[in-house]
Amino acid sequence: MLLTIVRHSTSQDNGRGLVSGARSDVGLSPAGIEYAKEVSQNYDWHQFDHVFCSPMLRAKQTAKILLGDDAALTYDPRITEMDFGDWDGVSEKLIYDKHPEVFDRLGMFNAKYADYAPHSESYAALVARVSGFVEDLKQQFADQSVLLICHGMTTRAIFAAIFNVDVAEFGIVQNVTLNQIHLDEKDHFKPRLNCYNNRV
Active-site positions, per UniProt (predicted)? Predict the structure, then answer.
């Protein structure tokens, strides 16, 4: 199976310094819409056998721009963004000022964040959520090409699940980049990394 994952285009929250997860169902910014339109011309988005999309607005808008309004999309809640609980929509600076210990050296939340953010989803829970999704893909589309349009943390978790490593092994996923893994169905779905964060 050839699995290609694309993060949504720039949302209204991106660049504002706000935590933006599953509870912030914002759309694309004007710049994000224009960027997605530009990228839609640079790649063959219709080459895939199946396309799955997060049901969140920013992912759906990106999918429609890249593939067209009539594209056959399957929405799956297991590839929504990570749920940051009560910290969703809060200023990252405010959180850092109070809890600097939950940030890694790249300025992203580390695994300890869930101990401080009420009602949040842990990294382990996110990886478990997407792991079930990936296993279903293996069963249904073993020898096919699949495109996912989802979110940054979700993408990192999918890579972590497939390669059986910590989420922190993968850096920030940029908007509308290609992230691709070949899973060899003839060798117990042994993964091979084709690309990560490749600009289209």
Answer: 8, 81
